[in-house]
Amino acid sequence: MDRNLNTGEYPAGSILKEYKERVGFFHENVLDESPPEFKVTERTKEFAGKCRGSVRMRAGLFYTEKEMGAERKKLLSVKAP
């Protein structure tokens, strides 16, 4: 980045400086952090069709935590050839 490491400031004309001034904050390490944990439930499936995003998610083609546990158990019980 083009930030001064001693002061933590961005030079004048920097896109990041403009963003920080307009929005009020800039989280530099956002890509290094893990996303928050959440459980996928039947309610998640119910509302997934109303949100923008993945076609697979909107169509409800994903497992809830309970369904994934059952599917995982079934797949792990099958003997490998």
Number of helices: 4
Secondary-structure content class = mainly alpha
Q: Sketch the major β-sheet.
A: none
Q: Globular, elongated, flat, extended or rod-shaped: what is the shape? A: elongated
The SSE order reads: HHHH
The CA-CA distance between the termini, in Å, is 52 Å
Oligomer: single chain
The percent range for strand residues is: under 5%
The count of domains is: 2
Would you tell me the overall average pLDDT? 77
Q: Helical proportion?
A: 40-55%
Would you identify the regions where 5 or more consecutive residues have pLDDT less than 50?
none
Counted beta strands: 0
What is the alpha-carbon Rg in Å? Answer: 22 Å
How would you portray this structure in words?
The chain has 81 residues and is an all-alpha fold. The protein has 2 domains: 1-33, no CATH class; 42-77, no CATH class. Helix content is 41%, strand content 0%. The protein has 4 helices and no strands. It has helices at 15-23, 42-48, 55-58, 65-77. The N and C termini lie far apart (52 Å). The mean pLDDT is 77.
Q: Brief description of this entry?
A:
41% of the residues lie in helices and 0% in strands.
Which helices and strands, and how do they pair?
Blueprint: H1 15-23, H2 42-48, H3 55-58, H4 65-77
What are the defining features of this structure?
81 residues, elongated, mainly alpha
